[in-house]
Automatic annotation (TrEMBL):
Transmembrane segments: 6-25, 37-58, 70-90, 97-118, 130-150
Pfam family, one: DMT_YdcZ
Species whose genome carries this gene: Falsihalocynthiibacter arcticus
Record-level GO cellular component terms: plasma membrane
Keywords associated with the record: Membrane, Transmembrane, Transmembrane helix
InterPro entries: YdcZ (IPR006750)
Name of the protein described by the UniProt record: Uncharacterized protein
């Protein structure tokens, strides 16, 4: 196997490990703020915006930023940040009740069901990829897995 897919696969795996840490970190931050979930999300996203802003400045990413580049995309592209904030609020509230493992198994299941739907209808500019029996069986096994993890 070529090295590039292995490197990106390893990066994706590391990303998954980091995402698994976010929920407990955010839940603890919220607890330290008197269970103020919205303030915790604001502070977490402020930190993320600051760090990525410094990285963008250091790499020259802002050079191509113009009014035209900001307004040239459809309005729905701005929903990504909102969806991320909603997900973080949900994780802060759900992880103390469900635990990290069950929460993330359910999240991944939601990711996969959403992905199958988005592929099928060609949402957000994607090339349509029809739903198939194989995809349905795979998703059914994932959903069965949620039940197994929930009972474990």
């Amino acid at each position: 196997m070529p090295a590039v897919p292995i490197i990106f696969g390893a990066m994706a795996f590391l990303g998954g490990i980091l995402v698994a840490a976010q929920g407990p970190i955010y839940a603890r931050l919220s607890e330290g703020l008197g269970r103020n979930y919205l303030l915790a999300v604001f502070l977490a996203f402020t930190t993320a915006a600051f760090v990525t802003g410094i990285m963008a400045l250091a790499t020259g990413s802002f050079r191509g930023l113009t009014t035209a580049t900001l307004t040239g995309s459809p309005l729905w592209v701005w929903l990504g940040g909102m969806f991320g904030a909603v997900h973080v609020v949900i994780s802060m509230q759900s992880i103390p009740v469900l635990g990290v493992t069950l929460f993330l198994v359910i999240v991944v299941t939601g990711n996969l069901v959403g992905a199958a739907l988005y592929d099928h209808i060609g949402a957000m500019g994607l090339v349509g990829r029809p739903f198939s029996l194989g995809k349905g069986l795979g998703l059914a096994l994932v959903i069965l897995g949620v039940g197994i993890v929930a009972k474990a």
